Amino acid sequence: MLSYRHSFHAGNHADVLKHIVQLLILQSLKQKEKGFLYLDTHSGVGRYSLLSAESEKTGEYLEGVARLWERNDLPEEVAFYINELKKINRGEKLKYYAGSPLLAVQQLREQDRAILTELHPNDFPLLRQEFAKAKNVVTKRENGFQQLKSALPPKERRGFVLIDPPYELKEDYELVVKAIEEGYKRFATGTYAIWYPVVLRQHTKRIVRGLQETGIRKILQIELAVRPDSDQRGMTASGMIVINPPWQLESQMKKILPYLTDVLVPEGTGSWMVEWITPE
Ligand SMILES: C[S@@+](CC[C@H](N)C(=O)[O-])C[C@H]1O[C@@H](n2cnc3c(N)ncnc32)[C@H](O)[C@@H]1O
């Protein structure tokens, strides 16, 4: 079943959190000269029109990236993310949103490379076309979870894997943990980030428990909620679980999350957390 389309959700509050964390990890990798591999297991199409019928239907970006677009008090980490989006908008108006592969490819240097996988029969051709001319980028219509076995360890011995499944199948909550185990076995020094939604808190807890049971150390959980947990339909929060995070990430996120919560959730129902699932 592949019914999830990211075009309905591009630029929402969950994308904002995910992509700020993603960019901070990439910035930290670039502090060393040596090249790295960026592996995006669930890429989507790379670029989204916020004027599309899908985007207009949900209007989710209006309560996400649009709330940051014209602010002049952005913390530097958030300003960096907005500037990366300004590059693809070429003007003052917010019309396009960059997905995780495009944000990442914008960061690559000569010595870095990316592998981008996407399974959807309509989305994959758009992804392939978006990066047809990009250097050091390979797009594959393959199962992203399998890449943790086939693409690791990278020859560079440095890398960042983003795992961002749609969770339309409940088994994704287990597959992300299995994927981490597979990846970690082959490449224990890599940085891995799992994006997760909070729809029902017990599903999120399954990921956390599963990761604790692997015995892997240095796992940081970062979350932004727009409403308290609920058993009604709908996503109340989202987060990123980062294995082997860069050392600055914890303090960077503790600094910017109060700002993001205030600006993205002016209704006052928001909250945030940064906690170690397992420390060093
Ligand atoms: C949440 S979206 C990705 C968004 C993207 N990472 C971003 O931040 O811009 C999830 C994507 O995974 C794709 N997908 C679902 N199952 C997959 C699988 N097993 N392997 C690769 N892609 C998959 C879906 O078609 C969808 O485009």
UniProtKB/TrEMBL annotation:
The UniProt entry, under InterPro entries, shows: DNA_methylase_N6_adenine_CS, RlmJ, SAM-dependent_MTases_sf
PROSITE patterns referenced in this protein's UniProt entry, alphabetically: N6_MTASE
Q: What class of enzyme is it?
A: transferase
**Residue positions of the active site:** 164
Example GO CC term: the record gives: cytosol
Annotated S-adenosyl-L-methionine binding sites = 19, 42, 100, 118, 143-144, 164
Look up keyword Methyltransferase and say if it applies: yes
Can you state which reaction this protein catalyses? Answer: adenosine(2030) in 23S rRNA + S-adenosyl-L-methionine = N(6)-methyladenosine(2030) in 23S rRNA + S-adenosyl-L-homocysteine + H(+)
One Pfam family here: RsmJ
Where, by residue number, does the polypeptide cross the bilayer? none
Which residues are listed under the site Interaction with substrate rRNA? 4
Q: Which GO terms describe its molecular function?
A: 23S rRNA (adenine(2030)-N(6))-methyltransferase activity; RNA binding
Q: Which UniProt keywords apply?
A: Methyltransferase, RNA-binding, rRNA processing, S-adenosyl-L-methionine, Transferase
Q: Name one GO biological process term.
A: rRNA base methylation
Statement: the UniProt record of this protein carries the keyword Signal: no
Source superkingdom: Bacteria
- Its Enzyme Commission number? 2.1.1.266
Name the PANTHER family on file: RIBOSOMAL RNA LARGE SUBUNIT METHYLTRANSFERASE J (PTHR37426)
Query: What assembly does the database describe for this protein?
Result: Monomer.
Q: Which HAMAP family match?
A: 23SrRNA_methyltr_J
- Which family does the UniProt entry place this protein in? Belongs to the RlmJ family.
Its job: Specifically methylates the adenine in position 2030 of 23S rRNA.
What is the name of this protein? Answer: Ribosomal RNA large subunit methyltransferase J
Provenance organism: Actinobacillus minor NM305
